[in-house]
């Protein structure tokens, strides 16, 4: 019997706290055996000064909630949390958090990987890069490797979810 | 009809949102993109390569042949780059 | 260029703090794009009152350090941390933490799963269960599914590491 | 030679560690297990099912045919159940 809490989905400018988010998923429960997390951070590649993230208020939260609900159907999760930051983020700053909790470790680990792979390809966010050398700015283009990472979940499950 | 633009589509068009009233023969997403292209040089630049643009209707991803109704919220943006 | 910090390995009775451990892996760096974590917790299965974990001081730390060093060779990690608790742990309490950091998300996610699968099967820990109903105690037996989870890493890489 | 016991092996033997001096014909891990079995009823109970016991020599996992030297640290325990 796995009782799943509704997925927690937030898009915000503020940082998030990994311990607090993890504690919220397990508070008062004794059926959680595994919590997996993924934090994506801003790297200082190639003279990057900052990433500026934009989203589609309303649609972005709905799309993430849909993906999270699908994860809760595919794996026996007791809960999951997705927090995605927007605005100007500098190298070293965390951008996105995915947390999944389950009685079993494989479910937590796999659903966490599934969610971040889908966030890369399916959630309405756009990233602009600003550089230290006055090169101006550049919109990040979608990557074929991200599409491939997301596609492997559909291939494994026969799912066509976005 | 409310139309929203994001990322470089927004930058090229010059605004993030606008209220438009396309003529009745603008029936689907692809037709709306063609009609919007004629509104200004910025719109024309934004929609010059229609294949590089994705759309959503009422906050769901939508294909070019998605039919439109007057009250729809339609958004145009580049392929997403989240995470 | 991935410069890996030496893996941090600790066996302790005290709890650990996920945020603090994660922050230590990324502090002062701008080349970390991904931090994956796994926390294993004590579940209240079947009337469990407590788990009592025992280790082999010296050998346990060496075995974990060896596994962590292998992970750093197989994936481009900038760092990894393993903290495993021992002593009496009650339902809801965290038992083990695995943290991996990398420029890339697949490396962080895969190495984190690799490490927890190996910890289940390769690290010298023994678990005793105590029950709420006076049934006394029972030593947890090794599980075939854990062996299978660990074996898939060897099969994928042709590795025979323990 | 220092011998260590863990988990239910320790409980059955009754001590966590002991210093032993096996005779010269005790040459490997399997031989040491047979010889230890004769030391007490607790030892005999612990080693009754040798197949259920794993060993380490100088803190490395060791097979039953692992050769032993007088200064070795040898440990016996059930299959590990970490994580």
From TrEMBL, chains B, D:
The keyword Glycosyltransferase does not apply. GO terms for biological process: Mo-molybdopterin cofactor biosynthetic process. Keywords: Nucleotide-binding. GO terms for molecular function: nucleotide binding. The keyword Cell membrane does not apply. CDD domains: Ubl_MoaD (cd00754). InterPro entries: Beta-grasp_dom_sf (IPR012675), MOCS2A (IPR044672), Mopterin_synth/thiamin_S_b (IPR016155), ThiS/MoaD-like (IPR003749). GO terms for cellular component: molybdopterin adenylyltransferase complex. Gene3D superfamilies: 3.10.20.30. It holds the Pfam family ThiS. Belongs to the MoaD family. This is Molybdopterin synthase sulfur carrier subunit.
């Amino acid at each position: 019997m796995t009782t799943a809490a509704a997925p927690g989905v937030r898009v915000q400018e503020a940082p998030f706290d990994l311990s607090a988010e993890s504690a919220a998923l397990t508070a008062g429960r004794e059926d959680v055996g595994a919590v997996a997390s993924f934090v994506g951070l801003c790297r200082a590649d190639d003279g990057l000064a900052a990433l500026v993230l934009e989203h589609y208020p309303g649609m972005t939260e709905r799309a993430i909630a849909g993906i999270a609900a699908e994860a809760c159907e595919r794996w026996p999760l007791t809960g999951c949390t997705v927090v995605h930051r927007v605005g100007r983020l500098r190298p070293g700053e965390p951008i996105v958090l995915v947390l999944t909790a389950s009685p079993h470790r494989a479910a937590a680990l796999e659903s966490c990987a599934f969610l971040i792979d889908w966030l890369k390809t399916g959630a309405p966010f756009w990233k602009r890069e600003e550089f230290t050398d006055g090169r101006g700015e550049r919109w990040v283009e979608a990557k074929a490797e991200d599409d491939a990472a997301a596609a492997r979940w559909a291939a494994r499950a026969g799912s066509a979810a976005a | 009809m409310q139309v929203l633009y994001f990322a470089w589509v927004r930058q090229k068009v010059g605004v993030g949102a606008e209220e438009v009233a396309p003529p009745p023969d603008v029936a689907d997403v692809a037709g709306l993109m063609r009609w919007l292209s004629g509104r200004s040089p910025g719109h024309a630049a934004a929609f010059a390569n229609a294949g590089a643009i994705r759309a959503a209707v009422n906050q769901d991803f939508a294909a070019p042949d998605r039919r439109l109704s007057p009250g729809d919220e339609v958004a145009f943006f580049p392929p997403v780059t989240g995470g």
